Every structure is written in structure tokens, then in C-alpha cells.
Amino acid sequence: MKEKAPRIGIMGGTFDPVHYGHLVTAEGARCVYKLDQVFFLPTGRPPHKSMKEVSDAEHRYMMTVLATLTNPHFEVSRLDIDREGVSYTIDTLRILRDFYGPEAELFFITGADAIFEITDWKDSDEYLTIAHFIAAARPGFALEELPKATQDWVDKHADRFHVLNVPAMAISSTEIRQRVKNGMSIRYLVPEPVEHYIRRNKLYL
Ligand code: NAP
After folding, report:
1. How close is the Cα of 3 to the center of ligand 1, in Å?
2. Is beta strand 105-111 parallel, antiparallel or unpaired with respect to 74-76?
3. Which residues of the chain fall below pLDDT 50?
4. What is the pLDDT of residue 142?
5. pLDDT for the residue 46
6. Ligand 1: distance of its center to the CA of 5 in Å?
7. What pLDDT, on the 0 to 100 scale, is given for residue 132?
8. Ligand 1 centre and the CA of 173: distance in Å?
9. Which domains does the chain show, CATH number per domain?
């Protein structure tokens, strides 16, 4: 009997820190798109940020491992972190396509806000030929907010571009970092082990 082609989610993000919004997004995508596995892929050296703005990759990796530990469908990949130089998403997707083979269905999951400038990303025309794209939207997000060039990019492969509304994405990493800095509680915004990790390593102070 022919084996079912795997359906793999790739959750791309900086995860500085990872929070419940990310976890709800990944679990929502897994259920809606019937994914076998979701790989969290913390960014290495993202092309659009200076590394001064971002916490050390090992901290972001560790927090993501701690947050995903109890879900058997979640794993964390070091693919971007361990790669030398700037990590472009298209290179990551090519590696994963070669690894899983042409039969596999890949779903790249990230924040709707993160794709605003996608037409400026390296080889942006190729993305939707390799993977489906799931844009996790915060409450109130509308596709019409995207710049015209990005809307045209979406329209070209509309059947492979999906918007997933995630009310829990009202939580943001920026707000969590700010709350830590201001001595405010982050309880129930991040999993408890992540909160302990942040405190223990004096992150975001
Ligand atoms: P970002 O600009 O820091 O984030 C933009 C927004 O999207 C933020 O509101 C963020 O919320 C949200 N977000 C980010 N990742 C998410 C996820 N997995 N699920 C739900 N919401 C998410 O974006 P980023 O994290 O640096 O990058 C996102 C992905 O796009 C990464 O995989 C990155 O490598 C890729 N990217 C690639 C290129 C390129 O190849 N040229 C350029 C830019 C981005 P939080 O802050 O709360 O996470």
C-alpha cells in the first residue's frame, strides 16, 4: 500500500521569547491543515534584523525547546541557527524540500505581519511553489492591509496562501520583553518553564 505523503509544518520565527500565541498558532495550523509534525525553526541571523536587536540564538532555541516539550507533534530545528551567515527562508525551504522529497506537503507558518515585505525577500517568487504559506493573523488583521506588491504575490498562488486567525496572537514577544524590563508579570503569557528560564538568565532586563 502506498504511504501517505507527509504534511510538515515549519514554524518560522525569532521566538524572542516564544509565547502562548506561537503555541496556539502552531497547534491551530496542525489541526486545521492536518499536519503530521510541526518544526519550530528559530531564526539564525535573519536578513532583516541586526543581531544586536535579538537575543542570543541559544537562549531562543532553549526557550523554544522548553515551550514545546509536552506536545508530541512539535519539534525544534537548529537548521537556521547552525547555518553560517545570513539565513534566508528560501534556502531553508529548499533544504527541507530536498530532505522530505517532492511528495511531501510543506507548510511555512509565520506571522501575517512578518510577510508585509515578502516581495523583498530573496527569490520570493519561488516560495509558494515549494510550500504552502500560513499567515497567523492577530485580531483585526485584513488582507487589504498588505502592500499592493504583496497582495499581487498572494493572488498568483491564492490556493497555497492561507490566513489563520489566532486571537491569542494578541500576545507579542515585544510586549513580553517590555513587561520583563518594567518588572511586570508575564505569567500565563509564556509557559512556566520559559518564564523561569527568562528570570534565571536575566533576559530582557
Ligand atoms: P518579525 O518581523 O519579528 O515578526 C513580525 C510579526 O510576526 C510579529 O508580530 C511577530 O510576533 C509575528 N510572528 C513572527 N513569527 C511568528 C510565528 N511563527 N507565528 C505567529 N506570529 C509570528 O518576524 P521574524 O520572527 O523575524 O520572522 C518571521 C519568519 O520570517 C522567520 O522564519 C524569518 O526567517 C522569516 N523572514 C525571512 C526573510 C528572508 O528570507 N528574506 C525576511 C524576513 C523574515 P512576535 O514578535 O510575538 O513573534
Report:
1. 33
2. unpaired
3. none
4. 84
5. 78
6. 27
7. 96
8. 11
9. 7-171 (3.40.50.620)
What's the pTM? 0.95
Taking CA atoms only, the protein residue closest to ligand 1 atom 37 is 89
Amino acid in position 144: E
Q: Can you tell me which residue has the cell 505581519? A: 113
Cell 491569542 maps to which residue?
168
- The pLDDT tens digits of the residues spanning 103-146 come to 999 999 999 988 888 888 888 889 999 999 999 998 788 888 88
